[in-house]
Amino acid sequence: MSTQPEVAVGRPHERVDGRLKVTGRATYAADHAIDDVVFAVLVDSSIGRGRISSIDTAAAEEEPGVLGVLGHHNAPTLPYEDNADGSYNPPGRRLRVFQDDQVHFFGQPVAVVLAESLEAAQHAAHLVEVTYHVERPSTDLSTAIGAEPVTYVRGDAEAALDPAPVRLDLTYGLARNHHNPMEPHATIARWDRGRLTVWDKTQWVGDGTQRELATVFGLSTDDVHIVSPCIGGAFGSALRCWPHVAVAALAARETGRAVKLVMARRQLYFGVGYRPAYEYRLRLGAHRDGRLIGALHDIRAETSSYETFTEEVMVPGQMLYRTPAVHQVYRTVPLDVNTPTYMRGPGYVSAVHVLETALDELAHEIGIDPIELRARNEPVADPATGLPFSTRRLQECFTIGARVFGWADRDPEPGSTRDGDQLVGTGVAAAVYNTARTGARAAVRVRADGTAVIQTATTDMGPGTATALTQVAADELGLDMHDVTVHLGDSDLPQAPPHGASTTMASVGSAVHDGAHRVRRSAAELAVGDPCSPLHGADPTDVVATGGRLHLARDPRRNDSYQALLTRNGRAWLEATGLYTPPAEETRSMHAYGAIFVEVGVDHRLGLIRIRRMLGVYDAGRIINPRLAESQAIGGMVGGIGTALLEHTVTDHRDGRIVNPNLADYLVPVNADVPNLTAIFLDGRDDHADPIGVKGIGEVVQIGIAPAIANAVFHATGRRVRTLPITIEAMI
Length: 732
Hints:
This protein is α+β, with helices and mostly antiparallel strands and 732 residues long. The chain contains 16 helices and 30 strands. The termini are far apart.
């Protein structure tokens, strides 16, 4: 069997949708031109817990252009069937809009104003008077009581720590982080003879939004159509269907018209999820040479009072290093807040920060170089499962990174290096993220004009999925990239998993590869059986394709074009559905890895921290498009800077109000905070992971950034700050 040539994959092609986006012609959720649309504005609760006593809508309804106000006082009862398996909704009883008088958190939607113009709806929303029976909310993670814990035990960690020559007992705090994508969440909903169409910002048009709305309104999924062709960033915030989507659909059904609802920036802080805050105590025991003996993890994380959100915060502590005895206790703490959700590198960002900061503290305690300490605790197989690693090139990442970064030139003594007013320090940390895959489908069609169309329901929130899928399809079909068009983001297209958790290329990319292979094989079989084809009588397994022409691998002179072949045989197209199904049982431990190097400067008088340079070296399997991969890495590094130095939610525990729900007070990195960032991806592939050898890079590039920064700050100043973000106040 001949090997199909690769021309597009591995090259830094520009985005196929780049021109649409930079010229403003890309259509995002709120941009769809739907006729006769009604504008909706939510009214948010002004208490953190209690019951609605009354809603006075008279003044609002008297305003010109206002069509009405919906709330629990006049909304119909909705079925709200239980979620089927596969939903991203966590366990519990999800928020049911306008179905009762209960208030679970500050900012909960309590009514929606509907009007002929956005301005009228916004003004009228301020005129709705809601009175409450107020109860004091519980919003303080440090004082609230946790739920029953989830535990993990390997060996006897308590007994192992007692005689350990070196013991550390460390407690870390990680603030809540919000996604803050450029595009706010938005929905347009319209009913047509009992079928609901929703244009929505969603990372999962299928089970995430389609199935959720079907359960809310008691419909079959065939009666719900979700459209989401472009997403202006999400980072996990659009992985589930939030209450405002159901509100828009309900309002559309009640008015008999299309309804548009766009969330205000401040509403994104309580209307959708966030990375939860953590309190994380870690006790470590080690030999004097740095070899770990045992670890005890005590983890507390916030969740809402009505749903229990969890994430994989326990996994890194189980497998990142060789630790004979591990005991983990993970408690969620129900609070009067809205439900958290997945955010880039979910669970791993928080856990790796604690692990990698603690490893740095251990290295300093026993006087070992931080990279050498990690090498001494490198496992030969996954310590949690015993499975061999598919690939684990973490030490290679450290070796290359140390050489490129100039790690050997550092003076290990904290506070020993100055540059003018700045204390200069360097820090290092590892990164790891699970390689997840799930079932996916993709329709592949080659037409008689020699072009191809790829269709799959996955979305693209910005990493360049459409471009990478185009590259995979173009190579397998033997077409130029400009002859391949990819259609995404529609629930009527073949089923695809959520666009998140670094699963898309491994899953959907493999389905596209399979579908393109099937089509090319069908074309080869058609050609060798066609007496008029130059390939007639050849072995179809010897046929490859390049430049739109099928030819023998050993004799390119014997060739036939898709266009001529299909036209001659009276075929308008050849098509196939590509499938990908991950194995039922894993035989390898599969993760992406990275080594992060950071240099900071800390003003010795002001405590102001500046990132001077940053390098990430990654073992992430096959890189489909180096330009897109670099873009992902830079974005992840910037997000990590925010987590380390800037981003945190401030809550007034008296009423549960978030006091900084805006980009003026909730700080995110801007150009002045970001130096030149460098990413290196190791050449290679992981054939155990999936047919196209990728591991996924969207998550791992944000993991390890915060601890590398924190470790650099310690090296610069000798001051260890165990709470994120590291603020100026903590440095003074």
